[in-house]
Amino acid sequence: MGIRMRCESWDVRRARAVVLVAAAVGLLTRMLIAANTPGPADVRIFADFAKAVTVYGPVRIYEHPLPGLPVYNHPPLAGWMLLGLNGLSELGMSFATLIRSPASIADFCCAILVFEIVRRRAAQGTAVLCGVGVAVSPVLIATSGYHGNTDAVAIAFALAAAHLLADRKSPLAAGVAAALSISVKFIPVVVIPALFVAALRGGRPVLVRFAAGFGALFALVWGPVLVTVPQHLRENVLEYAGGTYHLWGLVRFADVLGLPDSVITSMQGGGHFLFALVCVVAGVWLAWLRPGQLPGAVGATLGLLLLLSTASGLQYLTWAAAGAFVLGFWEGLAYSCAAGLTAVLGYSGRSAVRWNELTLEVGAAGWTVLAVGLAAGVRRILAAQPDTPPKPPAERAPLGAPRTSRPSGSAVN
Fold it and tell me: Are 290 and 297 in contact (CB under 8 A)?
């Protein structure tokens, strides 16, 4: 690819600057969408949640019924975020724009983060393309700029934790980032065991510092809620299974195949914990075998969670987007386009939670693309040498100068 080869002649500062510009353009695009569109029903629901948090507080909110609203299933840090956003809205700023800002900013950071992760494991040209891919990803623009929610923020913190632990050798900061990820949205809980396993593989001092960072932040954010309203937190957040729509993945295929409603109900009930356990085991397995490929393991685990998800929500398509680019450029591009088309069709329809037949078919194609990409990405992770550390963040020599050979089996094509 000509663009990729051209990027190889750049020094790392120029390559990083290109990704930074693309991320800035992506952020501007998202914010323009946020400022000029009403967004889906979640925007209005979050506005009502924010008002409720202002009345009851970020801790007591879990024990209060909220008539006319869905269950408040957000972790404690989200409540503090809503409290702050509501305060800004009372100063005259648009809440509809504000609620979509955190996810849009998270995508900006994630583009740079993916570039830094990939350039340690593959050619610089590939790293630039992957970073730019995150910045202009159709599915991320749709889910962050139009929908909002907090999924992108949680994913960014999860990937940051893997990068800090595996590449930056900063286990204390990695532990803090890991705790932040599940404090914004509980979804990344499936990657926490893999992060601890990778820390364990790094030696006792690394594990102790990672656990200290994780434990301190977790106690600060979750402690007051666990002490005050533990039962309501468990019911609202820890046991939340998602909606009951048959729009995506396994439950969609079960519906098409005409399986009994009892089977689908079981999948969406207690069965979803089994699927989550499969994701945890897969992440731990990859982290144990290839701790140096931890960011890829985290990306694969989050992608697998979406693949096996029994819940249906367009914003959930965010879970696999950035991680797919960590696994490979073509994997990320294919998923972003397929899932992006699903999101655009879904948001353009009558309701984001009632997909028409075309959206369902495109969603099924996106699920298949994700499955193929995950298989290729995991295979690439396992092909990496077990004892090969990521490349140090040294400045690249100009094209034509002597270069050291790249470690075999890089995690990105």
Answer: yes
Q: Look over the chain and give the mean of its residue pLDDT values, rounded to a whole number.
A: 91
Q: Phi-psi category of 408—alpha, beta or left, where left has phi over 0 and alpha has psi -120 to 50?
A: beta
DSSP secondary structure string for all residues of 367-385: HHHHHHHHHHHHHHHHHS-
Closest CA to 254 of 295, 312, 188: 312
pLDDT digits (tens, 9 = 90+) for 327-362: 999 999 999 999 999 999 999 977 777 789 999 999
| DSSP E strand boundaries for 253-318 | none
Q: What residue type is assigned to position 254 of the chain?
A: A
Reported as a pLDDT band with limits 50, 70 and 90, residue 10 is confident
> Of 33, 41, 142, 186, which Cα lies nearest the Cα of 97?
33
What is the C-alpha separation between 39 and 55, in angstroms, rounded? 25
Tell me how many degrees the CA angle 72-219-156 measures, rounded to the nearest 5. 65
Output the six-digit token pair for 147: 């929908």
| Residues whose CB falls within 8 Å of the CB of residue 20, separated by 6 or more in sequence, listed in order | 112
- Token output for 242: 């998602």
At 140 the pLDDT is 98
CB 331 within 8 A of CB 317: no
Helix (H, G, I), strand (E, B) or coil at 411: coil
- The pTM of this model reads 0.91
What gap in Å lies between CA 86 and CA 84, rounded to an integer?
5
Rounded Cα distance between 168 and 159, Å, is 12
DSSP letter, residue 395 = P
Q: Using CA of residue 340, residue 343, residue 347, residue 349, what is the dihedral sign?
A: positive
Query: Does the pLDDT value for residue 404 go beyond 60?
Result: no
Distance CA 84, CA 183 (A): 16
Residue range 16-53, pLDDT digits in tens: 999 999 999 999 999 999 999 999 999 999 999 999 99
* Rounded CA separation 66/72 (Å): 8
Q: Which two tokens stand for residue 262?
A: 């009892």
Q: Could you tell me the sign of the dihedral formed by the alpha carbons of 198, 187, 153, 76, in that order?
A: negative
Sign of CA dihedral 285, 291, 292, 293: positive
- Residues near 229 by beta carbon (within 8 Å), at least 6 away in sequence: 59, 60, 62, 63
Among residues 178, 11, 54, 115, which one has the least CA distance to residue 332? 115
Name 22's Cβ contacts closer than 8 Å, sequence gap at least 6: 111, 131, 132, 135, 136
Q: Which of 135-139, 246-250, 310-314 has the highest mean pLDDT?
A: 135-139
